[in-house]
């Protein structure tokens, strides 16, 4: 695949000269996230391909437009994987969009997020400068951690051109058990087991059923399943991919989808009974028409935040309202990277 870095830099320069905003587009699989943006598309999807891969060092560097499917195919040849289990969104998701939108799968509390696996990035800033942050080693403490700052920035800080990632070997064995229980019982059980030595790598509750995945050494997985198999049933592992892709029958595309990120042990009452409790209770999906301010108040009481993940009015604010001091800090960071505000204006917040 060709390296289109210079072409992307020239397009950013042209936008600066013409004072024209840009909407960064990879595979387009996550265009439903964030607020609506009206700007000229800057296509990054053809800037793809593996730059370097060191299986022994567990390090992969790829161009930002590289699809997750291509990355997974490359890693599979060495029995390795992206441990943060990013959703593929129909096979169109790219690694740049995955990092920009901070997308991680059901194993997030145990295996880490995309942010935790990023080692370095190359970025075109709002001055059309091509900058290099981080590196290609596990430990890199030089300078500010700008690489991880891109997680969840939704392209508002610049155009990522290359991303270096930590990869891991695939688990030797994977099994999932299912219990019938209430949401309240599931929250208590998941939090009781969170600190145990059992090889848990995912836990969620959906419509009266608790699912727990065990991954790792075969002996450890089989011993745990044998210990817990009473009053349970084993289920197909595809449930975790369907959950990550929002393909379970519980998800209704016509309804607004809200994502809570809260204290995993907090009981949110009626919300929990109608929600999916993911990440051991730390991430909760709720669907339906609701007042954002009321949900934000509930989220704060539960020690976290809420966002309108998909659907609903994408012209209004969709992210949790930030304190004034944090807004000021966000504006200063944006100004440092993108002084003319040409990248994805308003995608994250209306004021950014």
Description of the molecule:
With 352 residues, this protein is of the alpha+beta class. The protein folds into 2 domains: 5-169, Uridine Diphospho-n-acetylenolpyruvylglucosamine Reductase, domain 3, CATH 3.30.465.10; 173-310, no CATH class. 28% of the residues lie in helices and 25% in strands. It contains 12 helices and 17 strands. It has helices spanning 5-18, 68-76, 95-100, 108-111, 114-117, 146-149, 183-193, 218-228, 238-244, 270-274, 292-301, 324-337, and strands at residues 22-25, 40-43, 50-54, 59-63, 80-81, 118-124, 130-134, 159-166, 168-169, 173-180, 200-206, 209-216, 233-235, 257-261, 276-278, 283-287, 305-310. The strands form 5 sheets. It has a 5-stranded antiparallel beta sheet with strand order 3-4-8-6-7. Strands 11-12-10-13 form a 4-stranded antiparallel beta sheet. A 4-stranded antiparallel beta sheet has the order 15-16-14-17. Strand 15 (276-278) and strand 16 (283-287) form a beta hairpin. It is globular, with a radius of gyration of 21 Å. The two termini are 34 Å apart. Mean pLDDT is 94; it is low at 138-142.
